[in-house]
Design goal:
The complex is a heterotrimer.
Chain A lengths: L4 H10 L9 E12 L2 E7 L2 E3 L3 E5 L6 H8 L9 E9 L2 E2 L7 H7 E4 L10 H11 L6 H11 L3 H4 L12 H14 L4 E5 L7 H14 L4 E5 L3 H7 L2 E7 L6 E8 H6 L4 H7 L5
Parallel strand pairs in A: 4-9, 4-10, 7-8, 8-9
Antiparallel strand pairs in A: 1-2, 1-3, 1-5, 5-6, 10-11
Chain B lengths: L1 H7 L16 H37 L5 H6 L3 E2 L4 E2 L2 H32 L2 H16 L2 H20 L8 H25 L3 H9 L4 H12 L1 H17 L2 H6 L17 H10 L7 H34 L2
Antiparallel strand pairs in B: 1-2
Helix pairs in contact in B: 2-13, 4-7, 4-10, 5-7, 6-7, 7-10, 8-9, 10-13, 12-13
Chain C lengths: L8 H44 E8 L16 H11 L2 H10 L7 H13 L1 E6 L2 H6 L1 H11 L4 E6 L3 H5 L12 H32 L4 H13 L4 H15 L1 H4 L14 H25 L3 H9 L4 H30 L2 H7 L18 H10 L3 H31 L5
Antiparallel strand pairs in C: 1-2, 1-3
Classes of the chains: A alpha/beta, B mainly alpha, C mainly alpha.
């Protein structure tokens, strides 16, 4: 019925030379995103490196979140949203005809702007995602490992049965990260994960991201330039196209270059705070 | 041109200003009247309690009646001085249970479909149909129960079902409550923030898993409130049972039999030739008082749940 | 690296497919619930149509041929009066004349009087529309066998005649004019009571009420009143309006002596109290929908509170308030139980002349006719339901048009 992403990966490993896309975690080709007739994101070509943190920055309303949500097909739930072009993962187009969006999201996890734990216990928050995805191992171990990986274990190990809403905002967000990694995705998308948190919680999330990138590819949307400079290895700069009024990536490079020697005048204006 | 500007320019000479608070009698009178109108609604409740309580008291003061008999006996036959409320309560319970067995699963399923699955177009067709069902007077449902559902049941199950039976009345009552159940549940489901659905989808859940395992549990208290209101509606419903479930008070829980509910009994007796101050007359108020208290508790409970639920996601 | 055990590859595909199958089944079950609602509504409407038309098998108690060889359909007005005078007792004639002199009655009226009083239709059996359409031969055979003298005729129970005729003890001649007037009167009085009181209370709660104990009691109380069973309101109306205020509601203080407290006024007041919470809650919603910016703009130019409400809040909330009131009207029109308790009249054939008349109403008629054993009464119950539903439809259409016409402009 549908192409298993795994299977494809193995087949491509054997013919590595012929498939240069293999070295990227995700690659977009001429990606356009529409809401009805409205072109929201235009002609994006990105190669996201594996086990690195890639930041997407830009002024508000330029389509950063829309682009991020295109990576795991979360835009499917928006009425009238549609995509042209390709989003490739292991050489497979995620918008191909036989691709199952549920499996896509199982492999590409997401952390949202505001912490959104389920109104269940801390334990159940992590166990639920694992359970629906057919996890067969020891659930207690999985919960502990996910919480340790999210640097939350020591704070919650004595109250796993308590409702997740009792946690602070920063703890809730780390719980959401733990929940995402418990289903073992390859990529984690983060949509301004620290924007609703205080500076100390933000710092902890940023430290956590450095830890997580050893195993995961992370793509983060942020409008906080310092954060992008601090945490990311690569940075994509988005801006509204002056003619079409659609968001597009105007510059993509390693973070150091973007923040010190940007090629595009607009990027320079933006990162130095001279923008609009 | 210059003149016009002058006319809206601030006065050039300022008088001493008096910013002291002024008494505005008209304003206060209006507020007073509106307040009284608001308080009037409390008097409605008070007069219900007073009227029902007063007449019910007369009933219990009658030497023929004891509270123990009223609450303990299963026989209701005013003609021979038997006043056991259970004969009527049993029918109310039976019809209500049947009605809820229809309305709760169907109403909740309909709500889940409308809030989690239906496209705008499908919704715009199905939602008005539920609203039409909700707007049909209950006496019409009564006709439907007696003239359509009962004959249908009799042709399917056979003649052990009487012309009057609680099953038919209960089923139709369920259909009547369905729209209420569905629209209240839908409100509860819609109040669940979208971020929870997104969280579920991002973990690789199907729409169904997100709906049933995340959204419905999150809306649980709102759905609970809907069920409680449904119970209150079923207990208080009169016309369907008055028409379709029979006119003999009988202690039975067999849905195939005819039996009279509390409401149907009130409607039948008071609709006939009834002399004031008789024990029959007073007994109706005792039943009505019970109905009022039961539905009051249910409604308060449901409101309290809804209020708490609303705060949860704010 | 952690130890994870998730299905992979073909196992994963099978696993996801199984989940999709389950999801598909459930989704269809959800949809099925809605379909059941649709089917129920369809069945209900068809059942009512089914009862409103169909064959009727009847005999004449007195053969028309014994009166005259000329078919009575062709009688002139004078001949009809002659027949009536010749065949009715003096008492019956006097009663008819006191209602309206025979000479002043219309020909159609006289014709049905002759049919009703002299020839006297005796209905043997009635058939529903679908029976009549699809089992015609069987019906004809059955009637020929069981009632050899009976005539078989296709009858439109729902016909213009049915709407303009007064109530009658004979189903064949009964109409709903009396009941329609009764219903309109009751709704009118209910709205006269509940509209000003309800809108006033809504204004108080939305615009004036501070968050304090008494106001939260008022609000909770209104929400509760909305859930009180209608039959309890009926008992309230019986004890207060019918009995305690009998001198007033019977019109005795105004010199009307021929009725007790079971009048249109009592029923209307009871119904007004019943719909009051509905009016308040709907009006509150409408007032809530007026944005605060409008109020602030008015205060900003120095308006007092009441000026702000009167010239800005109410005009903007008016369409919503009216829509809510119309919905309350349709509730009042369809509500039955309280009317039975307050009205309790078994047979009223005279149009109500004012608030102190005894009355019947459409839902009461439907209830009484449905409760009769003879099938011809079920037919007119169905026809009366059609009339009631059409009236409700008109009201609701008005509400929807109003809502669309004055669609929110903010």
């Amino acid at each position: 019925m549908f192409v298993s992403l795994r299977e494809k990966e193995e087949s491509t490993t054997s013919t590595q030379a012929a498939q240069p896309t293999q070295e990227y975690a995700i690659e977009t080709r001429n990606l356009n995103i529409y809401y009805g007739d409205f072109l929201a994101v235009q002609d994006v070509n990105l190669q996201i490196q594996k086990q690195k943190i890639t930041a997407i920055i830009g002024p508000s309303g330029c389509g950063k979140s829309t682009l991020l949500r295109a990576f795991n097909r979360m835009n499917d739930f928006v009425n009238g949203a549609r995509v042209e072009g390709e989003v490739l993962m292991h050489g497979v187009n995620l918008y191909g005809k036989d691709i199952d969006p549920v499996e896509v999201r199982r492999r590409i996890g997401m952390v949202f702007q505001k912490p959104n734990p389920f109104p269940k216990s801390i334990y159940e928050n992590i166990a639920w995602g694992a359970r629906i995805n057919g996890y067969k191992g020891n659930m207690d171990d999985l919960v502990e490992q996910a919480l340790r990986a999210a640097a939350l274990w020591n704070e919650v190990k004595d109250k796993l049965k308590r409702n997740a809403y009792e946690l602070s905002g920063g703890q809730q967000q780390r719980l959401c990260i733990a929940r995402a990694i418990a289903v073992r995705p390859e990529i984690i998308l983060m949509d301004e994960p620290a924007s609703s948190l205080d500076p100390i919680s933000t710092l902890r999330i940023e430290e956590l991201m450095q830890e997580l990138k050893k195993n995961y590819t992370i793509i983060i949307v942020t409008h906080n330039m310092q954060q992008a400079a601090r945490v990311s290895d690569y940075t994509a700069m988005m801006m509204l196209d002056s003619e079409t009024r659609a968001g597009t990536v105007i510059e993509f490079n390693d973070t150091k270059t973007i923040f010190t020697r940007p090629r595009d005048k607009r990027t320079e204006d933006y990162v130095t705070g001279r923008f609009g | 041109m210059e003149l016009e500007v002058k006319s809206v320019a601030p006065p050039t000479t300022f008088r001493l200003m008096n910013l002291q608070k002024k008494m505005r009698f008209k304003e206060q009178a209006i507020e007073g009247v509106l307040f009284l109108v608001g308080v009037l609604t409390i008097f409605i409740t008070l007069s219900i309690v007073f009227v029902l309580g007063n007449e019910a008291l007369l009933f219990f003061e009658d030497p023929e009646v004891t509270l123990a008999e009223f609450l303990g006996s299963t026989k209701w036959a005013p003609a021979i001085g038997e006043f056991g409320i259970w004969a009527l309560v049993s029918a109310t319970l039976t019809t209500s249970v049947i009605a809820l067995a229809v309305a709760v699963p169907l109403g909740l399923s309909a709500a889940i479909y409308l809030s989690e699955y239906a496209s705008l177009r499908v919704r715009s067709i199905l939602k008005p149909i539920l609203e039409i069902l909700a707007g049909i007077p209950t006496v019409v449902y009564g006709y439907f129960a007696l003239m359509f559902v009962t004959p249908l049941l009799r042709s399917v199950v056979g003649n052990q079902i009487g012309v009057y039976n609680m099953l038919s009345a209960g089923l139709v009552m369920g259909i009547m409550i369905l729209p209420l159940m569905s629209s209240m549940s839908e409100d509860a489901l819609n109040a669940v923030p979208n971020s929870l659905r997104e969280a579920a989808y991002a973990l690789g859940s199907t729409r169904f898993e997100a709906a049933l395992q995340v959204v419905v549990p999150a809306a649980f208290s709102g759905i609970g409130a809907a069920i409680i209101v449904g119970v209150s509606r079923a207990v208080g419903e009169t016309m369907i049972v008055a028409i379709a479930s029979g006119a003999t008070s009988k202690f039975t829980f067999n849905p195939l039999e005819a039996a009279e509910t509390m409401t149907a009994h009130i409607a039948r007796i008071s609709g006939g030739d009834l002399s004031y101050n008789s024990i029959d007359y007073n007994s109706l108020f005792a039943i009505a008082l019970m109905l009022f208290l039961v539905t009051l508790v249910l409604n308060l409970l449901s409101q309290w749940i809804v209020k708490r639920f609303r705060e949860q996601y704010e | 690296m952690y130890h994870y055990v998730y299905p992979e590859e073909t196992e994963l595909q099978r696993f996801i497919q199984a989940r999709y199958r389950k999801a598909w089944i459930w989704q269809n079950l959800f949809l099925l619930s809605l379909l059941i609602a649709v089917i129920s509504l369809t069945a209900l409407l068809l059942d009512i149509i089914d009862g409103s038309f169909g064959y009727i098998a009847y005999e004449f108690k007195k053969d028309p041929l014994t009166i005259s060889e000329k078919p009575i359909e062709q009688f002139t007005k004078e001949e009809l009066i002659q027949v009536l005078q010749a065949n009715l007792s003096r008492g019956a004639l006097n009663k008819l004349n006191s209602e309206m002199p025979l000479e002043q009655r219309s020909e159609a009226d006289l014709y049905s009087l002759v049919l009703e009083r002299i020839i006297q239709i005796d209905t043997k059996q009635t058939y529903s529309l679908f029976e009549s359409l699809f089992r015609r031969a069987e019906i004809e055979a059955e009637v020929a066998e069981k009632y050899p003298n009976a005539r078989l005729e296709f009858r439109y129970w729902l016909q213009p005649e049915f709407i303009v005729s007064p109530q009658s003890s004979k189903a064949e001649f009964a109409g709903v004019r009396t009941a329609i007037f009764g219903s309109l009167w009751v709704v009118l009085i209910a709205m006269i009571l509940s509209m000003p009181v309800g809108v006033g209370a809504a204004i108080y709660l939305q615009e004036y009420a501070q968050k304090n104990f008494i106001n939260s009691v008022i609000q909770t109380n209104i929400n509760n009143l909305a859930g009180v069973p209608s039959i309890v309101y009926g008992m309230l109306g019986l004890a207060i309006f019918v009995r305690a205020f009998e001198p007033l509601t019977s019109g005795a203080v105004f010199g009307i002596t021929d009725t007790n407290g079971r009048t249109i006024l009592s029923a209307g007041l009871t119904m007004g109290i019943l719909v009051l919470p509905l009016v308040i809650i709907n009006a509150q919603e409408a007032i809530k929908a007026v944005p605060d910016s409008i109020r602030q703009a008015a205060y900003g130019v120095g308006a007092t509170k009441w000026q702000t409400i009167w010239s800005h809040v109410l005009p903007n909330a008016l369409p919503g308030i009216l829509t809510g009131n119309i919905l309350a009207m349709s509730r009042a029109m369809g509500e039955t139980a309280p009317l039975i308790i307050v009205g309790a009249s078994t047979f009223i054939s005279q149009d109500p002349s004012g608030p102190f008349s005894k009355f019947t109403a459409l839902p009461i008629q439907i209830y009484q006719w449905t409760s009769r054993a003879q099938s011809e009464f079920h037919n007119i119950a169905a026809a009366a339901i059609v009339v009631l539903l059409v009236l409700l439809l008109l009201l609701n259409t008005t509400a929807i048009l109003l809502r669309n016409r004055f669609q929110r402009r903010f």
